[in-house]
Amino acid sequence: MKKSNVWGLLPIVVFLVLFIGIGIFFRDMSALPAVIGFIIALIVAFLQNRKLDFNAKMLVVSKGIGDDSIITMLFIFIMAGAFSGIVKAAGGVSSTVNFGLSIIPSQFMVAGIFVVGCFISVSMGTSVGTITALTPIALGISEKTGLSLPLCVGAVVCGAMFGDNLSMVSDTTIAAVKTQGCEMKDKFKANFLIVLPAAIVTILILVFQAQDSGFVLEGDLSYHFWQIVPYLIVLVGALIGFNVFVVLIAGIIMSALVGLSMGMFNVTEMFQHMNEGISSMYEITVISMIVAAIFHLVKENGGVQFIIDFIKKHVKSRRGAELGIAGMATLVDCCTANNTIAIVMSGQISKEIGDEYEIEPKRVASILDIFTSVGQGIIPYGAQLLTAASLAGLSPMEIMPTLYYPILMGVSALVFILFQIGRSKPSKNRSNVGA
């Protein structure tokens, strides 16, 4: 176990101060590109801890970037980018947008984006993959209807975060279950009960916000069913529970067949469109690697352990234990910008706290998964918002005010904790432990 050290958190503090401070000073939250801010933070992390030489620090960084969850995420970026590029060129985005506009009442359009995002994310188990698939559609709907682009993209992110902590195949869900030693189905039931109120309220808010848009559809709303098929393949395959890579590859192949058969592009153009889609993911891929490097240096320097020790020291009751787990999970996620890593890092200490205060493992797993998703869903430097912002041509700060679901999910979870809803009764020999 690494020794606790508050100075280990300095790189994260430096990034936040620069990113937010420069954005406020220039009245433009994109004034400092995220990748530049993270490079500066990485340099700060390398300058710390004189006990390790440069080569030792490089080894720490290499292991961090080579973590299987990071590598998996990077490959998802690549495949999702290729799919996004080719399906758009094949006419999938425009046909899907026009199809949606033709059958969904205008006041339910944004809420519909959220619901579709929920289904895809639960099925695919990847919030980033969901955002990559749906953001171009949200962009097209905004252009056709005049609906606020940040609102439409925010609905996509909200839907993506719904499945991020519920999907049976999500790496965050798997990590939460594995660290707590509970059954997946039990965790799902406990988790779903907590987030359902947040999802319902989010739908109502989105319907309310779109009802007075007053737009009038103009222009051609024609669509071709075959151009929608690639999205249907991704959706159905995800619902069945196929591996995300298999689903995305199938979507890419079908998009290529549709585009070639309908004369949307030739073979060489097809490869160019795939390359353009992959290229659009370069920045987020680089950022993810740099963030992984920073995190492992922060961990090596005792920053993460400081957070864990601080939370544990202030736990006094069962309710307090659950709040401590929630706070720890959120803070670690904000430091790592990766909810899977945050769960893995705080999972063991959370299990110790849960055992001591007789909190059911499925409840601890749910708290871990929910609050890391809350943090991941709203931080402007997380993969989710950065991906959505880059695909939509927005700043993450423009999307943040529309992220109703992650915030409501956190509120709902806090209500369950504060009022101890759905908790099991402590055994008599531990009845003196907190209320």
Description:
There is one protein chain. The chain has a domain at 68-212 and 220-282. By secondary structure, the chain is mainly α. Residues 427-435 have low confidence and may be disordered. It contains 21 helices and no strands. The chain has helices at 10-25, 34-47, 54-65, 68-89, 92-103, 109-124, 127-145, 149-164, 171-180, 184-210, 225-240, 244-261, 267-279, 282-300, 303-313, 318-336, 339-356, 361-378, 383-392, 396-399, 404-418. It is 75% helix and 0% strand. The protein is globular, with a radius of gyration of 22 Å.
| Quaternary structure of the protein | single chain
Low-confidence parts, pLDDT < 50 over ≥5 residues? 427-435
- Residues in helix, %: over 70%
Largest sheet: number of strands, sense, barrel closure: none
| SSE string | HHHHHHHHHHHHHHHHHHHHH
Shape: globular
Number of helices: 21
> What proportion strand?
under 5%
Decide which structural class fits the backbone. mainly alpha
**Strand segment count:** 0
Mean pLDDT, to the nearest integer, reads: 83
Q: What is the CA-based Rg, rounded?
A: 22 Å
How far apart are the termini?
Answer: 31 Å
Brief overview:
By secondary structure, this protein is mainly α. It has helices at residues 10-25, 34-47, 54-65, 68-89, 92-103, 109-124, 127-145, 149-164, 171-180, 184-210, 225-240, 244-261, 267-279, 282-300, 303-313, 318-336, 339-356, 361-378, 383-392, 396-399, 404-418. The protein contains 21 helices and no strands.
